[in-house]
Each structure stands twice: as C-alpha cells, then as structure tokens.
Amino acid sequence: MSQDDLDLYPEQTDEFIAPAPIPDFDEDEIDEDEQMLAKEEELPSESGEEREEEKEALPAAMPVQEDEFVCSVCYLVKHKSQLGRMEGKKPVCKECA
C-alpha cells in the first residue's frame, strides 16, 4: 500500500503498521493425540538387531580405482581425465583448479 493510499484511508493505517499479536503458548494444552502418538512410536531395540539389518541393506563402498583420484579441494572422487593440476603431491580437479 502506497503512502497516498494510507492518506486516503487513515483508519486502515494501524492494521498495516501494528504487529500481529503473538498467541500465548501453554505447555499444558498440547494435543492429547500427539502425546498418544509419541508414546506409541516404536524405538529401535536395545539389542541393535534393527541396526544390523540396516547395515546389511547398505551397498558396500568401492575403494578408489587406479584411474581415479580424490580432489584435495572438493574431496570428490574423479577420473584421471578430470585432473586439473597437482599442488605438491595433492591432486586438484579441473573444476576446482
């Protein structure tokens, strides 16, 4: 709303300038359904059985191959064709060079 509009409608000026009221938050008014859901939520077992299953589902990481290098700037594994320069003994890819 421009200044001209505020001059034409002074009764509406306060609603644009006054901050919106912040509702009071009472911790005792937490929704009972949310409390029930939180209690029903299953946590991982203490024995770690679920964690072992998760580990088995993850693919194995491949070591860096002979025709690859790890950029010393971005730490990404790149093919040797992407080698930009060497800083001492540290390779730097073309994107970071």
Fold and architecture overview:
The protein has helices spanning 3-8, 13-17, 32-40, 49-57, and strands at residues 68-70, 77-79, 83-87, 90-93. With 97 residues, it is an alpha+beta fold. The protein has a domain at 64-97: Wheat Germ Agglutinin (Isolectin 2), domain 1, CATH 3.30.60. The chain has a two-stranded antiparallel sheet with strand order 1-2. The chain has a two-stranded antiparallel sheet with strand order 3-4. β3 (83-87) and β4 (90-93) form a beta hairpin. The radius of gyration is 30 Å and the shape is flat. It starts with a helix and ends with a strand.
Through-space gap between termini: 50 Å
Strand content: 15-25%
Query: Helix share of residues?
Result: 25-40%
Uncertain spans, ≥5 residues at pLDDT below 50? none
Structural category is alpha+beta
Mean pLDDT: 75
CATH fold annotation of the domain at 64-97 = Wheat Germ Agglutinin (Isolectin 2), domain 1
In DSSP terms, counting alpha (H) and pi (I) runs of 4 or more, how many helices?
4
Radius of gyration from the alpha-carbon trace, in angstroms? 30 Å
Highest CATH level, the class of the domain at 64-97 = Alpha Beta
The total of beta strands comes to 4
Query: In the CATH hierarchy, what is the architecture of the domain at 64-97 at level 2?
Result: 2-Layer Sandwich
Strand order of the largest sheet: 1-2
Major pleated sheet: 2 strands, antiparallel
Order of helices and strands: HHHHEEEE
List the quaternary state of the chains.
single chain
From the spread of the alpha carbons, the general shape counts as flat
